[in-house]
Amino acid sequence: MKTLKRVQRWIAAGALMGAVALAANDGIGTANAQAKPKKDKYLIYLSLSYSGNAWQSEAANVVKALAKTPPYDKLVELREVISGTDVQAQISAYESMIAANADGVISFPISPTALNRTVKRGCEKGTLFFMYDGTVTEPCAYNVSYITAGFGENTAQQLVNALHGKGNIFLSRGVPGNSVDKRHTDGAMSVFKQYPDIHVVAEYYGYWDDRTTQQETAKALAAHPDVDGIWAQAGENGAIKALQAAGKKLVPVTGENSNGFRLALANPDMRAAGLQGVSSGSPPATAAFAFKLMMEVLQGKRKLDTHNIEYPLPWVPGNQVKVCAGDKPENGCNTFPAGKVPDSFVTEVFNSRLLPELSLQSALKGEATPGQTIQPLPADAVIAAPDQPGINCQKCSQRADAYKLTKVSAAVK
Amino acid sequence: MSTRARPDFSFIRGVMTNGVTMVVVLYVILYAVYSHIEAGALSVSAFSDLVNNTIPLAIAAAGATFVILLGGFDLSVAGVLSLVNVVLATHPLDGAGGALISLLIAVGIGAAVGLCNGILVAYGGLQSIAVTLAMMILTRGLALVVLDAPGGGVSDWISDTLTNNLWGVVPASGLVAIGVALLWALFRRTDTGVALYAVGKDQTAAALSGINVKRTRCIAFVLAGALYGVAGFMLSAQTASGDPNAGAPLMLLVFASVALGGTAFSGGHGSLYGSMIGAATLMLLQKVLFSSGVQSFYIGLFQGLVMVVAVIFVNLITYLARRSHRHA
Amino acid sequence: MLNSKASGTNSNAQPGPAADNLARGEDTRGAVKWQRETVSAAGVFVVCIAALFLSRLINPEFGSLHQLQTILTLASFLIVVSYGQGLTVLIGGLDLSIPSVITLGGVLTAAWMSTLAPGGAWWQIPAILAVCAAVGVVNALGITLFRIPAFIMTLASGIIVYSLCLGVTGGTPGGAAPASLVTLMSGRVAGLPLVNLFVVVFCVIAAFVQSRTSFGQRLYAMGSNAVAARIAGIRINVMTVSTYALSAAFAGFTGMMLVGYSNGATLRMGDPYLLPSIAAVVIGGSSILGGRGTFAGTIGGAILLTIFDMVITSLGLAQGWRTMISGGLILAAILLQHEGALDWVRSIVRRRRSTTTRI
Description:
Chain A is an alpha/beta fold.
């Protein structure tokens, strides 16, 4: 028996030694590409951390749709990699992409800090890293995100205005331990703190999911049936469903961009019952914008000096909801009719100025819009984002007016 | 019939029926497939990247093996990893000396959690799955209290040195893993090491032969916790930052690694080496699936199939070997 | 033993009613009446009520009828899923594929049921449940035929099912909930939520099946000692297949309930139910090794977890502290199931009974 164990240990050690010896013999394999001449085929990786909710799928679909739109259909080889919520899996995926000599990686990063070392190595090898919506604090990566545009503070002020500066409110947050959730909530609290008559009576985590938000709001309503308003991150439609199920009158609700929420905001019966609010928040269109930016930089058509790019904050108050007639978001319409898309469809996936190539089929299925070609981005498309420590920069400090209001002003004092 | 004339197959049978050998063979096969698909697979940098990625999971799986050998479950691995990660990221200590102290802190935190688990399970008589589930929630909450959003910074010495290669070839993290394996080899020779297997196989018989079952159980949980601390330390080296949710994705992967490594969940059978190589196999599988161009939605399909096929394979070999042994 | 000593002093006199009962095959000794499992299940419910009373101190709204209805509605998902998990734990296994089967049931319901008719055809519900049960059958086949440990088999099948759902839906499950399920989850009957009545009926039937039918008895036998059960003629393989199929079917039904509740399916809808289902089963007194535990206890565990959740969320603390309190409360609930504590309670109850009645 003892001999057996010893033999096994040798076999295991031998296998490991053999692999190392092979490695040492073969030496370091991959070439180093610093200068980037114009190529006729770019290898681009789309790296998602997880798929399985409408936002993530739409973001991936619009990138895929753009990659299929001429001339990118001949120019770009796009490969999609889903790593799950495990940050090590995404680190491993990035390393494989760098080893495969990717020209560019367009990615939703699962962590703002854990990927930095790998991203830095990739930048040194000449791969461009463009992050959409989520950000990394590594300076060589490009962050394209709305996160610095002040979702939290602007929607909070809108809610305060609707409540005339006093009342009990719920705070429906995202995922605990997440920096995006923290930024939004910090911004919102900076506004609520200024109004002593606004009381946050319940704070819960909806995990950016309609169902979880509905359940958590129901629990909060059981404890505080007399709520006056709800400040919500994604999943806001669930909050409205919980209000309806509790049989109470509706209250002002601010949230993100789900189709169901916008339809509710425009619904005359619900408005009569007390629902008002604003639909703002994370736009999946950021992914397509980041992709077009990356392709323009790769092809030498644009020089990007700034690494943190801000995507403008969507802002649709209840009285500005306009339902689209057809399949294209034209004539300023910003919501789709009830049967066309599920309630959880995120409407801010189009942008007629920056992304005219996209249509509903692009967002739903990742297909290119027939007859469309890639339009160059307007010259003033790039807005620099302010520094936000922990979000998009490492050794930096927050501006004193980081939480200033840009979309709405205080109507009450 | 004289047994002299027959060549002695029992040696080969013994080697083949051992779970460790099977998983090593599986790993080598997978690596061969990987190097065939991926051009740069056999380079030093690719191998050291693979090792760096694997080590946290491998050491965590090694820790879980202690508890599974007793026939129990330890779900607290996720919480301990997160807690150690955020503590190291919020209190970075510089230099090699600081790294050593950080390692001791990590091991201390893990061992303390393991001690709580051990006392409640061994001396309290509670079920391990329940206690470790509660401890996981507790430690996860504590990690959130320490750091409420990803951030902080692990000391540079830890994150640079432990992800680099020594002498350009040998990954430093691989040395840590070999250290853990050596410690296990020593542990196996001690009374407690033997007692661990005895208690796992048959608790009553072990008690009757004079083994202090409760003490052995408690020690197993403490050692498991200590190894989780080391795994958290290596995870911090790799990510160089703190995240209160760092450990969550690893929980089920840890148990999958242990099962792939041939350790039986009923207790008393298996080894640490198998768990570590099982972890390496899972991480390598990720790379193989990436390189093979499998459509990303269906990666889970292949992961699940490989896990099932691997376990069936091990069972089949064991069954055949036992059958031929009976016939001989 | 002590009891028989006490009755032994009477043995010279006429054999008492207990002896008659024993001869008839009925065991009416006090020790047997108050089984450990009954005590543990009752204990969980006592803690539930205590928690509700204490929570009134935190918020006077707690303990109202409306809140109780909300608790029962929100706990309904966990109760249905924990029944299936409890059955697999009873035979000494574990079902980790529950989150993915919940998703499968939900995705099929949302996508398929609304395509045929707005309300969905009645036969679609059993059809979807059959598909989910097929996953359970595959699990059981792996466990019985190939001797794959339940942990690994169900973990792997969960990953596979999730991946298939992801691939087929392309990341965005479409469709909406059929009217029947929406009515189930949000309709009211005589002022009470329909789902509450459904849960009560479900609990009664499910507890009866587990504890009083021969099917349930056979499960207990298998969990206590599989070898003895096989010798006694129980067909282990068939029973294992039925158990895992039932577990998957209940998980699928939970997915349907979730779709009815929120009018849509998402691909991670089952994730929040894996660890709580195990916790509810264990807090309710079942042993992870099998052979012990009642569904009544599991119901208590599920309701207790929901109450804890509600109470903790209403505390205005940071999430880290809330999570720690949650872990501490679960640990306390588990300590309740400590064998020493239960035996102590039983001995008190028996002592009181034996002072009032003569055996």
